[in-house]
Prior knowledge:
The protein has 155 residues and is mostly beta strands. It contains one helix and eight strands. The protein has an eight-stranded mixed β-sheet with strand order 1-2-3-4-5-6-7-8, with no helix packed on it.
Amino acid sequence: NGQTTVKAIAPGEESPETRDPKALTALAFESRLAATDKSVAFENLKLTLDDSTMTGRAAIEDLEAMAIRFDLTVDQLDLDRYQGPEDAPEKPDAEPTELPVKELESLNAQGTLAVGKLTLAGVHMTAVKLTVALVSRPAICSTILSRTMPPRSVY
């Protein structure tokens, strides 16, 4: 048990080219680590990537059952800025990606992810909440609740 801190670092390897040249340039992590022989948890977690900050708790509450639990909040996240450059050449149509259904069926995860402001594909959303409950059943139960703002809105 103890405190873990990684202060404002830049990724060591060359970052992929993104629409925003300032994307993927700042990363910091801080958390209180609580571990036993049966569990591990990041309490008071704070992860900062560029202009986004995620706080909360993430844990494996039962290592034998791999029982993942989380309660995370992100203040703002603009996923568009992490896309490839707009002037990048188009790639030929790729094969569809298959979901790993068997692996998802055996996943033991429960928690929520709340995002205050989210931008995705030019759509601005506020109060986005994803709830995941995958416990002892072969189905994904998730709910996304959000208020969508018009694409030209200013926060």
